[in-house]
Sequence to fold (150 residues):
Amino acid sequence: MLFFLIYVSKAAVPMHQTELLCLLQNARSHNAYNSLTGMLLFVPAKTQNIGNGRFIQVLEGSKENVIAIFERILADKRHHHITILNQGHLNVRNFAEWQMGFEYIEESNFKDESGYVKLNDAFFENFQPEKFNFALNFLKSFYELRTKIG
Fold:
């Protein structure tokens, strides 16, 4: 059975294009080898007064592989305040065509999306996982849009 995990985190340092591209290339290579798929969004700091920026990512694959990569993510010094938004079992992959989809997004690009929430400090202070179900649909909306337009 497939497993998924969605988390959000704060970037420890400003992330520039070169660092993000390197991170993405490494993730895609590792994910292909471990049969993982998913989506990574990066929200730069300039958009929301959010320190050095925010990551939100969904990973899907075998539970063993998803947990193993998440443990590596927890140890990665490039981000902190890692918060699991949702996790569970899947019947089919939501991001089957992507070892790791990626989107660098400005607030103006997604503030009208269903379930939009600012990933600022208030989000982290008031987060209640039992009331938070939009994360997967939010990430899937980027996947569906990109796969439709090529």
Observations:
- The chain has a mean pLDDT of 77.
